[in-house]
Write a structure and sequence with these properties.
heterodimer, A: 263 residues, alpha/beta, Rossmann fold, eight-stranded mixed sheet, globular, B: 431 residues, TIM Barrel
Chain lengths: 263, 431
């Protein structure tokens, strides 16, 4: 690919070859991807990579990093990343988590807030929304789930770029890997842990930014209040006319908030 | 040969348009369309039909289990089986099968043992992974489907044979107290058969366990490949597979005239038939398929030259009339290929003979109806099958030497002295 900004590398972590995407220079930022896998390189990545080293690991079992049989839930996966950060001397690191990735980050923070410097959670799963349910990806096709993730796909130039555009056999397989591992992690209760709000009260002393679209069809906006009320001092940025992907749907504002918060 | 009678005990009062408009899927139709009065009548008729099948001389009545769908009335198959255990006297009660990954294995071990005791030892348990939609309907994680199947299988065998009480701390099941006071009458365990739609992994697993494998209405050519695969694995395991290791379930509709039989047989493709069991996103929930199967699916769904017909994901509005025309064409193709056999007893027997010569099964199931068909027509079909087709089939089975699994113990044939297995199928020819 011409002028590709990023590169894919592998690091050995506790017996697993962890594949990750990286780009940029400056202090590292850990990006934890969502339940359909890494979305592909987008504009907000490029902008962040101008001043920061972006690190996007492929979660174990999501295709590029082998599955770890003992990882059965989000706590197990968070534990894997906690060990990885320690082994790579990356503590404390800034973290940005999207959807399922947001849940993983929040779970790690609840277990040990000192492993992060600052935390950004973009429409994380993990709690049962007071109103509505988290959309069940397991009874939908990956494409239908993707379509439901934005408020207005038509007027969004970057939507068509997500996951490389038109589904290829390779993309179908990657999505099936992602869906299967998501099922292993969060089949039932679907994408939340019943007592998670209580655990989040342990996220003490960690600056936390919550970003949410008010028209989010995947994780209802009502869940934002649970996160905000549970994590001491958390800041909430809510976008109107925006679904589950503020990083794409409100890219300019999203990147500005990111720059301000992570400064 | 073991000849059995089967139907899905479908809720047949669903308008065909509803199935098609639901994305050609029985699964997912709202149950506001279900009327318990009709359900009550049908369930009793279906039980009566199984008693009638016994009177007519069938060796077994086969039941199956699917959940939350009008396609099949057997959501609690073990309850039907328990009733049949009491109200029939001679037939084997063949369950093909209990979906192990969605069951509570300890409870299932008790249920099956109870049925075996009530029936006086006539139970044939059979076990499946379950269609993908069963994972959704029963909330059982599809990504662990095969692991759960294997663990549940081993657990049930242990529950039936290992002196209790004992404890089970497995990967997917944990029991602090296993000591069932319901054990099968048949010792050490009843004969177990495995039905399927010829997934190689299950065929291999069955051969390793010496369990007869019953192919459910699959196309002839891949079924022959499956039989050969089973026999190869059997040879590796040190035994010669024979007819007693193989079964086949055949769509077969019989009536007094050719015309009427063909008309009634259209029920097999009602709403798209088995091809419309459930939309692809429900048939293939996350992690249900092996990596290899996912690769095949990935190719099929994106390459218009291969198999797009079977990959039916939800799409917006559908053209009902166009789909009905394609269903009609599929029906004609099924009649030609022999997937569906319809006619008078005389014509039907000729076509069944071809199936028996080719596949050489020791178990043969006759799936005698699907879709809207009156109780009278269903009984007529059963009667003609029992009185006029069944005796002919028994003669053919004798002539072709096709013993069933109660005549020759599956897995008991030694390999030829050469160490190379004998052929297990006949020449492939059009049905």
């Amino acid at each position: 690919m011409a002028n590709q900004e990023w590169r894919e590398e592998t690091v050995r972590v506790g017996g697993t070859d962890l594949a990750y995407i990286t780009a940029g220079t400056g202090a590292p930022v850990l990006v934890l991807h969502e339940e359909l896998g890494h979305s592909g390189w987008l504009r907000w990545h490029s902008e962040l990579a101008r001043t920061r080293t972006v690190i996007i690991p492929h979660h174990p079992g999501f295709g590029k990093t082998p599955r770890i049989d003992s990882v059965r839930n989000v706590r197990d996966l968070g534990n894997f990343y906690t060990k990885a950060l320690r082994a790579q001397n990356l503590r404390p690191i800034d973290v940005i988590g999207f959807s399922l990735g947001g849940w993983i980050a929040a779970d790690m923070a609840a277990s040990d807030p000192s492993q992060f410097r600052k935390m950004v959670l973009v429409a994380p799963t993990g709690v049962k929304p007071p109103q509505g349910d988290i959309m069940d990806m397991f009874i939908l096709t990956a494409k239908a789930y993707l379509d439901a993730s934005v408020h207005d796909a038509q007027s969004n130039p970057e939507f068509a770029k997500l996951y490389g555009g038109e589904p290829t056999p390779e993309q179908f397989e990657a999505w099936e890997d992602a869906r299967a591992e998501s099922a292993r992690l969060a089949w039932a209760p679907y994408m939340f842990y019943p007592n998670f709000a209580s655990l989040l009260e342990n996220v003490v002393g960690l600056p936390t930014l919550l970003v949410w679209g008010k028209q989010d069809q995947i994780v209802p906006f009502s869940a934002a209040e649970v996160y905000k009320n549970s994590i001491p001092g958390a800041e909430l940025v809510a976008f109107d006319n925006c679904g589950h992907r503020p990083e794409v749907e409100k890219q300019a504002e999203f990147s500005q908030h990111l720059q301000r918060f992570l400064a | 040969m073991h000849i059995m009678s089967f139907s899905e005990r479908a809720y047949i009062d669903v308008p065909e348009d509803l199935i098609i408009e639901n994305g050609s899927s029985y699964f997912g139709i709202p149950n506001t369309n279900f009327d318990a009065k009709i359900g009550s009548r049908l369930m009793n008729e279906y039980l009566d039909e199984r008693v009638y099948a016994e009177e007519l001389g069938f060796d077994g009545v086969m039941l199956n289990e699917h959940h939350q769908t009008p396609f099949c009335g057997g959501s609690v198959m073990d309850v039907e089986a328990a009733i049949l255990a009491r109200i029939t006297k001679r037939v084997k009660i063949v369950l093909l099968g209990n979906p192990l990954p969605v069951a509570d294995p300890l409870r299932l071990a008790e249920e099956l043992a109870t049925i075996d005791m009530i029936s006086g030892g006539r139970l044939v348990p059979g076990w499946v992974r379950g269609a993908g939609s069963e994972s959704i309907a029963n909330n059982a994680n599809p990504a662990f489907n095969r692991e759960r199947f294997n663990e549940a299988h081993d657990f049930i065998i242990d529950a039936w044979t290992k002196p209790g009480p004992w404890r089970h701390e497995g990967k997917h099941y944990n029991y602090r107290y296993v000591n069932p006071w319901a054990l099968p009458l048949q010792k050490p365990v009843p004969q177990i058969w495995i039905p399927g739609i010829i997934s190689p992994e299950t065929v291999i697993w069955s051969a390793r366990h010496r369990y007869p494998y019953v192919a459910l209405g699959t196309n002839l050519e891949p079924t022959v490949e499956m039989v050969n695969l089973y026999a190869d694995v059997a040879a590796q395991e040190g035994y010669q597979a024979g007819p007693e290791n193989f079964g086949y379930l055949q769509n077969v509709c019989v009536a007094e005239t050719e015309e009427k039989a063909q008309e009634l047989a259209k029920g097999f493709v009602y709403g798209g038939g088995f091809g419309s069991f459930a939309r692809a996103e429900w048939m293939f929930p996350p992690g249900y398929n092996s990596k290899e199967a996912t690769k095949r699916l990935a190719k099929a769904m994106t390459d218009p030259r291969t198999g797009t017909e079977i990959i039916r994901f939800s799409q917006g509005k559908v053209d009902v009339e166009e789909i009905k025309r394609s269903i009609d064409k599929n029906f004609q193709d099924a009649l030609t290929s022999g997937l569906v056999i319809a006619g008078t007893p005389k014509t039907v027997l000729k076509r069944i003979r071809v199936m028996l010569e080719t596949l050489r099964p020791g178990i043969f199931g006759t799936w005698y109806h699907h879709g809207p068909m009156s109780f009278e027509d269903r009984k007529t079909c059963l009667r003609l099958l029992g009185q006029e087709v069944l005796p002919g089939m028994r003669e053919i089975a004798k002539e072709l030497d096709l013993p069933g699994p109660f005549e020759v113990k599956p897995g008991s044939r030694p390999l030829p002295a050469s160490g190379k297995r004998d052929s297990v199928v006949g020449a492939l020819k059009a049905a």
